[in-house]
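PROTEIN SPECIFICATION:
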Amino acid sequence: MTTQPSNPTRTIDAHLHLWDRTVSDYAWITPELGRLFDDFGPEQARAELTAAAIDAAILVQAEDSAADTRFMLDVAREHDWVAGVVGWVPLEHPRRMCAALDDLAGETVLCGIRHLVHDDPRDEFLDLPGVRASLAEVARRGLAFDVPDAWPRHLAAAGRLARSLPELTVVIDHLAKPPVGRDEFDAWLREFRVAAELPNTVAKFSGLHLPGVPFGAESVQPLWEIALEAFGPERLMYGGDWPMTVPTGGYQPTWQVMGGCLDALSNDDRAAVLGGTAEHVYSLKDQTFQPPTPAIPTETVDF
């Protein structure tokens, strides 16, 4: 990927979720999650974005299912504030993955793929031959790949993936969930910086309501400074991670803290974090998701 995004014409939240439990199970959403044990729809999201003066958002999958992806694509058709959709396909099965992307070939709003690696029991998921073959095809079709909650099991693997597939843009969600206040923080920092050395990696400044850590400028500003030094503004994206923030105050308090971290940036650098990087990484101005031609060699991949 090139490292200089275009100047954005709109501010973009690069990480926002919706879910409707009449659409799919969302098995991880249980009563123990309190206020998250509810549905969150596009009208609620639009109201939060408007209050924060955010123009558009990227919808990001909340379940490893075709139903969740289809739900987001349906929302995108009806709401012009949806700039893109990061959906799901069965990456470990390349032929099924190709068939799923074939079915989505007309969905130009589809801009990325994600798998809930933190919920997958396989530590080696990103190193599986089938997954690597699938992600090579994801890259060929012009889609990015998001990695959620990479620390501790998948941050080093995300770096290996980016090194192995330089044509794939690897997006590290939530700064890989840094273990603030824990002994392994230095190990996270080393792996985070190693991943940042690769030009095809990008990070999302998002999802920083961390276990046992009070959310505020005191905890978030140091993480922002680490990310800015490692990636630079041209490879960082702001994400509100709503509605995951609802139990701890919601969109507006989160935006106040995270947006405040950007105040010292130049206008151009702030514009990159708040839109330009997302437009570049997810090809939002010129979406080129095209119907495929066969590209995965059957003799080298175990289907």
